[in-house]
Amino acid sequence: MSDTTANVDTAVADTAAAADRYLAEFRESGAFGHQVDPDVRAVLTRMSDSVSTTLSLAARAGRESREIQADDTLYPAGRERLAREAKESARNSVDQANAAFDTDAQVADALLFDAARPKVPKGSEASARTDAMMLLDGALSREGASLSQVLKSLAGRQDAVGALVASEWLDDYAMARGMDPEVIANVKVLIRHAAMEGAASSGDPDRAAAARAGLALRSLRQAQISARTFASLTLRG
Length: 237
Hints:
Elements: H1 3-27, H2 38-70, H3 76-116, H4 125-141, H5 147-156, H6 160-165, H7 169-176, H8 181-200, H9 205-234
């Protein structure tokens, strides 16, 4: 075996191991807890199963291809065609699993964030807007102040102001202040994470469970990235 082949085999094994590790990390996170909405749990289960499916499909097709290549009872051209078809079939199935995972990931992310984030209490909307605008306008006018850090800090709060900043209200505020939509889109990623972290440690068991599941999606995404890499390496050629 050449050094190049050995290095590729090591990389393949490492990516499979990484996928298994991230998948175990996700499953141990409590994301499937009974306090998470059953419909969301079903989506998370499909996503987890998709990772396992990608790994098993690629591994099985890789073994099948190697066995065909080693079968000296077949003509060389026949071996090449059958081995190629085995990999092509697996690639098609893996592509379908990946597409389903991506769709489910968007659904799960939206549902879990909505379930985890605090809501502005009825009757507190006006005062929350006043406080939020005062804090954000102050950050915009203060030299050296970081608006993204202020927004992140506010989003982590589990009060009315934090709820407002983590809601669609921020888009209206940013538009009114003439802020770059692309910058706000990037900042909102930090805001969502801060809001989820705050909710995870809140005293509300349902919101905390949704937040923990939402934060655990990172491990599941990492598992899928590793599984995709494993499939790409195994099914190449």
